Amino acid sequence: MAAAAAFSTLSPFKLSSPIETPNFPSLSSSFKLTSSAAAAAAANSPTHPFGPLKFNRIARFATAAPSAASSSATSATTFHGLCYVVGDNIDTDQIIPAEYLTLVPSNPDEYEKLGSYALIGLPSSYTNRFVESGATKTKYSILIGGDNFGCGSSREHAPVALGAAGVAAVVAESYARIFFRNSVATGEVYPLESEGRLCDECSTGDVVTIELGESDCKLINHTTGKEYGLKPIGDAGPVIEAGGIFAYARKAGMIPSRDA
Amino acid sequence: MGSSALPPTSSFLSDKQKDVGFSSFCTQPSFPCSAQVSKKMVSKKVVSVMTPQQSERKPSTTGAVKTGMTMTEKIFARASEKSQLIPGENVWVNVDILMTHDVCGPGSIGIFKKEFGKNAKVWDREKIVIIPDHYIFTADERANRNVDILRDFCNEQDIKYFYDIKDLGNFKANPDYKGVCHVALAQEGHCRPGEVLLGTDSHTCTAGAFGQFATGIGNTDAGFVLGTGKLLLKVPPTLRFVMDGEMPDYLLAKDLILQIIGEISVAGATYKAMEFVGSTVESLTMEERMTLCNMVVEAGGKNGIVPADSTTFKYLEDKTSLPYEPVYSDGQARFLQEYRIDVSKLEPLVAKPHSPDNRALARECKDVKIDRVYIGSCTGGKTEDFMAAAKLFHASGKRVKVPTFLVPATQKVWMDVYSLPVPGAGGKTCSQIFEEAGCDTPASPSCGACLGGPRDTYARMNEAQVCVSTTNRNFPGRMGHKEGQIYLASPYTAAASALTGFVTDPRDFLQ
C-alpha cells in the first residue's frame, strides 16, 4: 500500500518541531514518536486516505499552535485504516513466538525486525498474513480481537511487535492484564475495549475509523456502514494521555524531568 | 456477573440430583448474602464441590469505614505506606525485589538507560536479581549476546545477585549459574512473606507461595522500577480458593491448579488475586505451593498467594537472613468470590490442546496416542516433580515407550536428581530410576523447551507431535511447532503417559 510504503520510508527526525512542549513526554521508542508525527501528517493528506494514523500525541496534547495533523484532533483522537480480525485468547506466543524473543525491543534495528514477525504465530487457519512475507510493516493499522487478548507471557515484545509493524490501536472484547499494562506503558498500541464482539462483526480488510471523543468512543466500519460503541479507557487514560508511565511519573513529580 | 457466568463445567457439576446443602460462603455480613444455591451447579453425588458463583460484591466505596483487608490488600497497603485501601485503587508501591532474565533484561536495561540516562544508577543494587535462564544452551548468537548484556550491566551497576553463566558447554563449570528464575528465587532466599516481588516474566506469580505479592511486568515497567524502586499498581480484589480434604496419593498440586483453571477459565481471574487456603494447602510442601501459584497467570490472575506458616518458615530458615513480617487476611476481609473444593474427590487431569483451561480427566484421554513426554520448567521441573515421576517409574518397573525429556529447573534440582534417594526405591536416585526406565539423560538446567525457544533448544518440538508436558501453557506453537499438540499434566500423569505411549491416568501405576 502506498501509505504503508510512505510510512516505512520516513526517516526519524529530531523532536524539535515548534509544537513540542517543554515537558514533552518521552517514550520508550523515541523514533516511533517522530515517525508517527510525520505519518499523521502524511496520513491526513489527500493522497494517503488510508494511511495508518498513529496515536498522535503531538496533535492531541500539544498546547501550542495548530499542528499539521487532523484539524479535529484538538478534542478527539482518531485512528483510521484497514482492520485485521482475530479471535479469542490470542496469546503472546501467537503475537510473537518465543524464538524471536532474542530481539531486544530497545534496539532500533531489532525493534523493526520484531515488527516483521508480528502475529506470525497465528495458526494456518488465518489465510491472510498479518505482515506479508519479506515486509516489515503491516497494511492493517487496527487489530480487532475477542476475549482475553494478549494472554500468556509478560513479554513486552508482544505490543512492541504490533506497534513496530504499524498497528495503531487494538480493539478487543477484553484483555489479559499484563498485555494491557504493557500497551499502556510503552504507548506502542492504544488498547481499546469494545462493547460487544466486534470480531464477529468485522472482517479482515474492512476500512474502519476509531473516534475517541470527550463524551463517547466509537468505531465506524465504512465497509459495512455500521457503528459500534467502545468503552472509555478508564484508569489507564491519564497514563496514556501523559505519554506512558515515565511521562506520567514525571508529571506527577515522582521522577525528575529528563534533560532534553 | 450472575451465577450463569461460570463456563460449562465438567461431568461432576452436571444436571444430576439437586439435593445438596452446603453453605454459600459470605464473608462480608453487610452485603446481601443469598443463602440460595444455584441449583444447576450442584448435584447430590458430587465428586468435588465448588461453590456456585455468587453475585459479585463490589467493595464499599464509602472509604470512611475501616474494613478488614485480604492479605494481598495488606501487602499493598504496607508497600504504599497507607493504612487502608480497597481493590481498584491505583497506588505507588515500594518494590522489595525486582527480577529479570536474559529475554527481558536487555530490553529493560535499554529503557532504564534511555529514561534515566546512560550513567544512571539503579535504585538499590541489592534488590535486583538477574537470572539468565531462558535461552542459555543454544548457539544462537543473539541469545548469547543477551547474557553478555546482562553481565555488562551487572558489572557496571555492581549488582549483588547475578547468576552468571559463561561456559555453555558445561553448566557445572559455572558456580554462580542457577537456572530457571522462579525456582532460583525461592532456592536462593529471595522470596519472603509480606514483600513485593516483581519480575519480567509472567510466572513471577510463583513466589506468592511464600505469602508475598508477586507478579509479572514488562520491560518498560521494569525499567521504571530499576530507576525508582516503585511502580504504579492497581489493588486487585481477591478470589479465595478453600481446599480441604486429604490429598490422594495420585494427585499433585498441578492437578489442583488445572482443576481450578478449568473451572474459572483462562480469563476467570483477570486482574484478581487468587488466595489459596484450607487444610489441603496447609499440607502442601513449598514446592507444591509454588506449582499452585505458578499457574494463576493461566487463569488471568494477577497474583497467587498462600498464607505463610511453619512450612514456609522452615523452608526459609537456611535461605534468608533478612527480616520479614508475614500478613494474613482479616476475618472480616472481603473476597470477590469464594470457592470450596473437596480435594479427596478429584482425579488426575490434563489440559488438552490448545488451552490451559481445556480440562479433561486423564483417564478419559487414554486413547490419545502421544509422541513424547517433557518433564521440566518452573511448573514441573523442581526436585519434588522429578521425585514424583521417579516414584511412578519405579513403581511400574517398566521402560518408557516414547522419548522422555527431563530438564531440571536449576543446578540444585539437577544435583538432587543425581544424589537424593527416592523414598521407597531402596536407595536409588531419580537419575538411576530414569536411566533404568529409558528416559533421556537429565539435561542442563534452564527453561528449555517449555516455550520453544531458538531452533536448537533441547527437546524443542520441531515437528507436529503430541506431547504430554509438566509445563504451563499449551497455546498453538508454544513448544515450537504450530501444529504441535500439548497436554499439560502433573509429573505423575506425564510419567504414566511415557510408560504407555498414551495419555494415562497415573493410578494405573500407583495403585
UniProtKB/TrEMBL annotation, chain A:
Give the matching Pfam families: Aconitase_C
User: Per the record, what are the reactions this protein catalyses?
Assistant: (2R,3S)-3-isopropylmalate = (2S)-2-isopropylmalate
Pathway terms, separated by semicolons: Amino-acid biosynthesis; L-leucine biosynthesis; L-leucine from 3-methyl-2-oxobutanoate: step 2/4
Query: Boundaries of each Aconitase A/isopropylmalate dehydratase small subunit swivel domain copy?
Result: 141-187
Q: What are the record keywords, sorted?
A: Lyase
Q: Which Gene3D superfamilies match?
A: Aconitase, domain 4
Positions of transmembrane segments: none
**Mind telling me which SUPFAM superfamilies this protein's record contains?**
LeuD/IlvD-like (SSF52016)
- The EC number(s) attached to this protein equal 4.2.1.33
Q: Name one GO cellular component term.
A: chloroplast stroma
Does Lyase count among this protein's keywords? yes
The protein's predominant localisation is plastid
| Entry's localization field | Plastid, Chloroplast stroma
The UniProt similarity line reads:
Belongs to the LeuD family. LeuD type 2 subfamily.
Give the protein's recorded name: 3-isopropylmalate dehydratase
